[in-house]
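Lecture notes, unit on protein representations.

Consider one protein chain, 313 amino acids long.
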Amino acid sequence: MPEQPPAPRRPPRVALVVKRSAWRIYREERKDPRITHLIETGDAAVARLKASHDAHEQTVREVKAALDALGAKVELLVGAVQSFDADGLDLVITVGGDGTLLSASHHVGDVPILGINSAPGHSVGFFCGATSGEAAEAISKALRGSLRSTVLTRMQVTVNDRLATARVLNDALFCHVSPAATSRYVIRLGRAEEEQKSSGFWVGPAAGSTAAQRSAGGRVLPLTSKRLQLVVREPYTPHGEQYRFRHALIQPGASLVVRSKTHDARLFFDGPIHSVSVGFGDVMEFTQAAQSLTILGLSAKRKWGAGSAASRG
């Protein structure tokens, strides 16, 4: 019987999530008269908008050309707020900065994600595996399975025993809807409880420990740590007392339980896009999520403030 020829290889399937730049939103889409006036008068507040936009658009063209050269079947999503189904994809690529990757990661399960920092002179790209000028090589390696990867722990959050999200990569922020108001809540960790007043609190996995947790006085954890970290923002202790749980590490398998004593609170996940309302008496629980996230081009040893280069991995 004659040997059958090998089946033709299907094109790789990729979701491409592209940030909408501030210039595009305010100048081109909304035609904001205030922004237009500031641009025309050379105001310092908008001095970097056009340069950042131009750099971003050049990187978008670079990424699209690389995918076209590889024959990829691409689902283009413009704007980080768009939802999509990553099941069945070979790769998710984000073009923007960390915010774009974080938002897109809420729609990503087992599929690896590669962030391309489109304007490294203007945006933060700690999680990004490549920058402009490196996209073609990084994408080619990613689709071949030869680009280094790091598996990061994510956090699950429930409110009143109902799942709010199981895909927090950076952090969750609990606070009053007004930043000028006090947040009141009761923390339970293990068998210990503590009532607190503060500006709210951050809690998240190790991947977010270099961001808001660090800025609020928390520890920078190894990227691959499975612990969660709680950091209270501006604790209100007028008589000099110390909160036991101002900073706390939650071990794998343990949970942090918080009962809100705030009427109008909100719980934000990985930035301002994903959030839920929290009322007086609502109970939030924070635990390690069962599903981790694979990020390509990211070294497990990357330090806060360090750059990235696909050619180095």
